[in-house]
Amino acid sequence: MMLLNMLFTFFKIGLFSFGGGYAILAMIQQEVVIKNAWLTEAEFVQVVAISQMTPGPIAINAATFIGYQKAGVIGSLLCTLGVILPSLMIMLLITVSYLKLKKLPWFQQIFKRLRLLSVGLIAAALIMIMGNAVKDWYSVGIFAASFLLTWRFKLNPFTMLIAAAIFGMLFGSV
Amino acid sequence: MLLKIFLTFLKIGAFTIGGAYAMIPLIKREVCSRQGWITEEEFLDGLAAAQSCPGPIAVNISIYTGYHVRGKAGMFAAVLGTILPSTISIILIAILFRQYADQALVKRAFTALNPAVVALIAVPLIQMAKKSGLNLKNAWFPLAIALCVGLLNISPVYLILVTIAYAVFEARK
How many Cβ pairs within 8 Å bridge chains A and B? Predict the structure, then answer.
């Protein structure tokens, strides 16, 4: 039952996330943390960190990791399958007919609106995890430094996270 | 040919860290310039399609390219190649993480990793906001969505369905 529920939940996540990895993370937070309480907010932040440091699509990494934590290898395969199934069905349709679809006004309008919606969705996810991860001067400082380094100085996310991990090992206190 | 599609996407999946936006330039180089499977224009159309479709963008663009080269079999080969490195490396990391999560060193690393991760979501959010054509006139819409989801706990699923219906209505006017 749990396994079926995981497959269905990740299918829903894949079906309702528009705009790639970060929109998917926002949906995962909604479904996995808030609705099903399979992970705490703090564990979710760990999942995001590990997903960004591992090769491959962030959404696939997050789905596999959560699946493994909840139900081992079978769980990780089911969550991954769930999140890519909607892609396999819908993207196949779009691939076959994209040249016709892109000329239709309603098709364009839907995605113009959904792109804006994803911005709002990710902003909500950001505010929710910010309350959990940025709470004292130490974490505010690290947030500000990482933000500046990736935004202004274009440091790549992987290097940024490795640097943060080393900094935490040296100066963090538990 | 199928094996070649699989191996090409396997390589892309294994050597890009940081999600779709890191993968796109590499996919483009492999499938357009090096293998010559599709033209640059076809790729850009595919990329636009991949961003319109729900789900992971990297998976969507693999479906598009795989299908163009060898139909449905090509599509499955490309998708499998893209996700296999992820699945294997994450399972290994998850096994290690379970053993070492309680070590003081790992906990200390996460005291800095957690706020850094928040920054790594904030930066692409700004970039996405720019790309989505956000301006003063339409900013109410993402703001309303953020409030509905963050404060009122309304499921994004309903908001998406309403948005799709509204967009179709707008386009018909």
Answer: 366
